[in-house]
Every structure is written in structure tokens, then in C-alpha cells.
Amino acid sequence: MNNRIDRLLSGEEKADRIGIVFADLNGLKHVNDSHGHFAGDLLLKNAAFVLQKTFEGCDVYRAGGDEFMVLAVDLPEEEIADRVQMLRGEADDPDAVSFALGYCTDAAANLRASMHTADERMYADKEHFYAMHPSRRRD
Predict the structure, then answer these.
(1) Residue 21 exposed, middle or buried by CB count within 10 Å (0-12, 13-18, 19+)
(2) Rounded to the nearest 5 degrees, what angle is found at the Cα of 102, between the Cα atoms of 73 and 22?
């Protein structure tokens, strides 16, 4: 992921449009604590599968821990927004795969700023999740 971002930032790789989607898996700590790390690993694999299926043709990276990043190169803005909405519908079960999501579709203009915007939006969505499910808040 970092190598790809570096190639885009340096201009070594060109793209007319870049969309960034950050997806933070909700409830991984709860699953690990309640059902063990094997169940947590399975949840991570299921989350990756849902992301890969929803963002077919895009690059999906595990950024670390329970956070993923989707890099959508040359995908129209409307298509990214539609896929994010689809993902919200498919991965909104707090007892299974559930994501806090943030995205930005104007990343070709300023990739670092767009990543920051997508990240901020994801954390706002995460706060909304915990407001709806306070028992799932991380300790």
C-alpha cells in the first residue's frame, strides 16, 4: 500500500481520478475478547472478502489492525459513492461484519489531503457506530 501511494505521489504512476476509502472494522476487540483470536481472525478475513467483492477491480489493502484502505483508480465518483452505499448495506451488522467508513473521491488533486479527509470521515462514522452501540466501545 505504501509503495503504491509513493508511486502515485511521485508521479511515477499517473491517474486521472483516485478515490480513497477507509474502512475500520467495528467490534474486532469485542470478538477477540468474547470469542477468541481465531474468531477475530475469521472476522478479519470475512471483512476483507466483503471489501474485495464490493470493490472488485480496485486495490484493497489491510492498513493495519482492523483498518483497511481501498484505492479506486480511475473509477468515476458516482461509482465509488454507490459502492460505499452498497458496502454500508452489506456490512452493517454489529454482530458480524460492520465497518466505519470514510471516503474521498478527489484524491488525484491532492492524495495526502484526500487520505486525511477520508480518515476523518471514517472516525466520525466510528463515533456514530459507538453512539448507536455503546457496549461495543473499545476500552
Answers:
(1) buried
(2) 60
Distance between alpha carbon 12 and the CA centroid of its chain, in Å? 25
Distances (CA, A) of 6 to 15, 20, 24, 46, 115: 13, 14, 22, 28, 13
**Number of Cβ atoms within 10 Å of the Cβ of 136:** 16
Give the DSSP H/E element, type plus range, for residue 19.
strand 18-25
Instruction: Enter the C-alpha cell of residue 116.
Output: 486525511
Contact 103, 19 (CB under 8 A): yes
- Contact assessment for residue 75 and residue 43, using Cβ atoms and an 8 Å cutoff: no
Q: What is the pLDDT along the chain (139 residues), one digit of tens a residue?
A: 999 999 998 889 988 889 999 999 988 888 899 899 999 999 999 999 999 999 999 999 999 889 999 999 999 999 999 999 999 988 777 678 899 999 998 766 788 899 999 999 999 999 988 888 777 666 4
Q: What is the pTM of this model?
A: 0.89
DSSP conformation letters of 44-111: HHHHHHHHHHHTTTSEEEEEETTEEEEEEET--HHHHHHHHHHHHHHSB-TTS-BEEEEEES-TTT-H
